[in-house]
Amino acid sequence: MSMKPTVIAVALALIGAVSVASAQTANTPDVSPPWQHGQNNDAVNRGFEFTVPDADNLADFHGNPDHPALALYVGGNYFFAMAPLVKAFEAKYPEYKGRLYWETIPPGLLVKQIQAGGTVTVGNMTWTVKPDVYLAGLKAVQKQVDAGLLQAPAVPYATNTLTIMVAAGNPMHIEGLSDLSKPSIKLAMPNPAFEGIARQIEASLQKAGGKTLETQVYDTKVTQGSTELTHIHHRQTPLWIMQGRADAGVTWQSEAVFQEQAGHPISHVDIPANQNTTAIYAGAIVKDAPHAQAAQRWLNFIQSKEGLAIFEHYGFKPYVASQSGS
User: Fold this and answer.
1) Which domains does the chain have, with CATH numbers?
2) Is the dihedral of CA 33, 36, 40, 43 positive or negative?
3) Gap between the Cα atoms of 129 and 110, Å rounded
């Protein structure tokens, strides 16, 4: 059953409708996550709504955890694409309407949650949702297939490249990766301990300036305090830049595209192809997934023309079998 183009258009319009061009300072409420104004939640009955940005927002947990029909553990690099993806998926499979649950924390932390039986604690709240699908970088997915947490095969579907996220207007006049070693530039950089993107960033830093540049950014400047390591780079990097806490940070280019589309005072500096690194996104069904049929339907959907069209809206590219990446 194929979807009409208008379904994709409507789904994309919903996420695009959250433009917050008026967010100019760190004191503007819209600067704080969540940034989708409820769109990244497909629950039909939301009861009493209580969201306080900067205090109570649970920005990376979506939907209703009470007996979902499909639970997705999604590496957070495309949290912004999930609303239109879910809406388009539900248009194709109406039986799942309002019954998806998904998380978008870093892939390494999602693995820890899988190992904990799906239980997670945020602040004063603890809940359990066992995942059906795990989605992250291809190598990360294959690693967990080999470890027995996921079922083969690892299914690749889209690719992404890196960029340097900066404040609108690029006030620090950053021109490339080599500038990130300057002591005067405050960086927000993903933590290598559990954020997969850090591996790709380290590779790009070495391409741009050898081991010396990587050491300056990820060692010397951390010690000096001019590089601050994030825990959820896809939320913290733009937030810290808008707060003036950081001047720049390396992220996936799709994340900068989203911030610009949302009207936030964020821009980006392109990284040349010979210094860039390509990520391949993949997914696999979790071993003993509670909803195996729904899981397979999701993997099929994100490889489809309809699913890939949503990814391409944010600058992702479809995976081609001949590609190599992380």
Assistant:
1) 5-158+282-318 (3.40.190.10), 160-270 (3.40.190.10)
2) positive
3) 12
